[in-house]
Design goal:
Blueprint (H helix, E strand, L loop, with lengths): L12 E3 L4 E3 L2 E8 L4 E7 L27 E5 L4 E5 L36 E5 L11 E6 L13 H19 L6 E8 L11 E7 L4 H13 L3 H12 L3 E4 L3 E4 L10 E5 L11 H21 L6 E6 L13 E5 L13 H6 L8 H15 L1
Antiparallel strand pairs: 1-3, 2-3, 3-4, 4-7, 5-6, 7-8, 8-10, 9-10, 9-14, 11-12, 12-13, 13-15, 14-15
Bound molecules: zinc ion (3 copies).
The site of one zinc ion (ZN) has 5 residues, from helix 3.
Length: 372
């Protein structure tokens, strides 16, 4: 359901302090009228200056956003937490293009989530958070103020800046005592449940260590060292599933991929998180992620839906290790056919795939090469 412009919790945004430099970007912190944080990231070498929208300050204080707390329940049978965020039922669902809440706020136009007439990258607290302080956080990361486009289509400098934004968010959220795991991700395409088309990703800061990163730590224990390091060594040795690589990053379809075009983008060196990467490694990570996603779009000559997950070291007090890598789970098997999680996948947890990772890798490698 689309909320009317007057309901939108935006309008004025007060600057908290002067912009601070961070790698190639400057950080400009604000708070929205309803108290939610809004941070603008602008490349220091760019001409663009985020200007406050000409919108009049609200005549009455906005009511606080509806931010009822989520409830956490433990599923004993599966040994996992389930989050009940029932307020999310009301969230904006595929609004008309002229009512996009992630667009800049144009003078005379409806207020959006970002009360500036232009911006480069914006991060704000999700209005419909699955997690919120003091039990984690949920943030929206908007890649551009251009409604059309995609991560793959960003200018390389913008994609590089985004790596620094991710790094900063990880750093900020990791420092919080209520955060055990920070997950940066993007859902792209209605096939994976996207509710807004504007190019954006999200960050969830979990107040517990979720099962998938816990499984990866279990793999470290099983393999007697860093699992991504040893799995990467195997891929570099066999060289039959690599789809793209540069000096800092290797991308491959893993040996036991669950999805036809599942792709892992892994740092060559052991880097627990984005904060451990050099500036040039971040630049090369951005380049590799863009190469892979452009290759995805070239694969079937259509916008390619995916779930993109950034896995990094957990941030809890026990200081567990990790190895920065990005996983893509694309649901397409062919240009038209989707993989559905059905009986075996849901009921037994065993994926049945009708394509071999080596064959998918050869096709994807060719598609990536065609767009470089
Ligand atoms: Zn938009
Ligand atoms: Zn490693
Ligand atoms: Zn992973």
């Amino acid at each position: 359901m689309w909320r009317s412009a007057d309901d939108l919790q935006s309008g004025r945004a007060d600057a908290d302090r002067s912009p601070e430099p961070y790698g190639p970007v400057s950080i400009d912190r604000h708070h929205k009228d309803d108290g939610r944080a809004l941070t603008l990231y602008t490349r220091t070498d760019s001409d663009a200056i985020a200007r406050p929208a000409v919108a009049e300050p609200a005549s009455e204080p906005h009511a606080p956003a509806h931010r009822s707390a989520s409830e956490l329940r433990f599923n004993e049978l599966r040994g996992e937490e389930v989050v009940y965020a029932i307020h999310r039922q009301d969230r904006t669902f595929l609004p008309a293009e002229d009512h996009c809440p992630l667009d800049p706020t144009h003078p005379g136009g409806p207020p959006t989530e970002i009360p500036f007439s232009s911006y480069e990258i914006a991060v704000f607290d999700n209005l419909f958070p699955a997690f919120q302080a003091p039990h984690g956080a949920a943030e929206v990361v908007v890649y551009t103020d251009d409604h059309h486009g995609s991560f793959a289509g960003l200018a390389p400098e913008r994609a590089e800046a985004l790596m620094w934004v991710w790094r900063h968010r990880y750093e900020q959220l990791a420092a919080r005592a209520d955060v055990e795991y920070v997950m940066i991700f993007e859902n792209r395409g209605v096939e994976v449940g996207v509710t807004l088309h504007h190019p954006h990703g999200q960050i969830y800061a979990y107040p517990f260590l979720p099962p998938v990163p816990a499984l990866e730590l279990g793999a470290d224990a099983r393999l007697g060292g860093c699992a991504p390091c040893s799995l990467l060594a195997r891929e570099l040795d066999e060289r039959v599933r690599i789809v793209h690589e540069n000096d800092a990053v290797v991308a491959f379809v893993p040996l036991a991929a669950r999805w036809a075009y599942e792709t892992h983008v892994v740092m060559r060196e052991h880097r627990p998180s984005l904060t451990d990467c050099s500036p040039s490694e971040l630049t090369l990570l951005a380049a590799a992620l863009q190469a892979v996603t452009r290759g995805f779009d070239a694969l079937f000559n259509r916008p390619f839906p995916y779930i993109m997950i950034v896995h990094q070291a957990p941030t809890g007090a026990d200081g567990a290790s990790g190895h920065l890598h990005v996983e893509f789970y694309p649901p397409l098997r062919t240009g038209e056919k989707l993989k559905y999680l059905a009986g075996s996948e849901q009921g037994a947890g065993t994926f049945i795939s009708d394509t071999l990772p080596e064959e998918s890798a050869a096709i994807l490698a060719k598609a990536i090469a065609s767009v470089l």
